[in-house]
Amino acid sequence: MKQKYHHHHVQKKQGGIITMPFIFANEICEKLAVVGFGTNMISYLTSQLHLPMTKAANTLTNFGGTAAMTPLLGAFIADAFAGRPTCYTLRLALANGLRLRGPCVVSFGADQFDENDPEQKTTTWKFFNWYYFCMGASILVATTVIVYVQDNVGWGWGLGIPTAAMFLSIIAFIFGYPLYRKVDPAGSPFTRLLQVSMAAYRKRYVPMVSDHKMLYQNEDLDAVISVGGKLVHTKSMKFLDKAAIVTEDDNLKAPNPWKLSTVHRVEELKSLIRMGPIWAAGILLITASAQQNTFSLQQAKSMDRHLTKHFQIPAASMSVFTQTSMLSTIVFYDRLFVPLMRKFTGLERGISFLTRMGIGFVISLLATFAAGFIEIKRKHAASAYDLIDHPQATIPISVFWLMPQYCLHGIAEAFMSIGHLEFFYDQAPESMRSTATALFWLSISAGSYTSTLLVTLVHKFTAGENGSNWLPDNNLNKGKLEYFYWLITLLQLVNLIYYLLCAKFYTLKPIQVHQAVDERENKDEIELTDHV
């Protein structure tokens, strides 16, 4: 079967690997600004503003959760109206105030490669690895250099440097603008989803057709939202198929999208619904890792952080171990693990993103499990030196005992978070990729709020009459932080079982891929692929 497609709204002569230095330079500077601002903020809130520990922790997770919600707005603007480059520029202009840019930069970067070009086929999923690597390298600098300046020079310089970094990120993006491959917006994805839902509801009493080939299809109508391929019919969620049933009242020459939808548009909604359970599984991993910048940091502040007699590591710089382990894992994964696994699985990316995420869940569980035992050891040292009642005293136990939990969180992030991003970009309908990747940041938001809720409930219900508490406000030595870590471990175990069930029954996005005629006149055959 041969068909020809002309898609003039994608500038195919632009993009490619030449755009990556500008996109990565922009991401490095922007992340330096954001992380440089937030990493050490728990110290600022507790030491400068004198907030109680639990209130300071909740303030940070609430801020992170709220900021992580804004990418959904940015994704909507990018997919529906402005396009990813414009949304990208808007986000940079707004600097740290909103994170509109988040999903745009991921989708925009991946858009620079044509997935239907065999020469660029593997470049897209490699982009996610190296995007995360550049982001991690920037965070590494922020958690060492900028944190050191904040602790030893002053907060004026400590917050001024991130501001300058944000300005440089704008310059880096603007310099590369003429080279970018730009995909025009395809109309509001949320409107299309509502139209399908409304059409299906209106036809809820219409009998189902005996053959799915009788369902409404219109390639001209769907051309702008199916550049890379057309979604084909799936047997799940048949109640939504009724939106594509043609009745006597439907005008096929000028169909009302609120009464009749194409199969492609119905499948767009099905794809997003199928992604929901996998999305939800990622929330608890964020909740677990959020403790690194709150309670784990407070643990580090109470321990011996000296590298030499006169130099000690800033407590907030302990996350350098998270970033280092994450970066090392990304390099190992890309250079050794994928080629090795490719020989066994036959998959170009070594293992599927669902398997990659599952490995990340297991490692994150081990991180919080180990953290509980390390906290017991820290308190034993405090007790041995009679420092339980001295929260400001330095306990003579090396801060490097915290390395295992930080490193395990970094390894888990390299598997789970990148796999999560791959999943959203690959399985989302192509016209909704910014919206779908915004779900990654929405899971960060949900995880941050879940952390706030969990800390609040634990602090409330573990309070004793004598002032005891799992999470005390002023003296961590008298608390039961290890119980809190193990509670998160238990929740992660339940979540892992839930994820395995979701992954087992997940249906991959079915897409009929076509080749663009302007580049591959002799290769315009259509193939069925699941992109995994």
From TrEMBL:
Question: GO MF annotations for this entry?
Answer: transmembrane transporter activity
Q: According to its record, how does it sit in the membrane?
A: Multi-pass membrane protein
KW Plastid (keyword) present = no
Q: Does the keyword Transmembrane helix apply?
A: yes
Record's SUPFAM superfamilies? MFS general substrate transporter
Locations listed in the record = Membrane
Q: Which GO terms describe its cellular component?
A: membrane
Cite the entry's keywords alphabetically: Membrane, Transmembrane, Transmembrane helix
- Predominantly, its location class is membrane
Provide the transmembrane region boundaries.
130-149, 155-180, 311-333, 353-374, 439-463, 483-501
Q: What's the family?
A: Belongs to the major facilitator superfamily. Proton-dependent oligopeptide transporter (POT/PTR) (TC 2.A.17) family.
- What protein does this entry describe? Protein NRT1/ PTR FAMILY 3.1
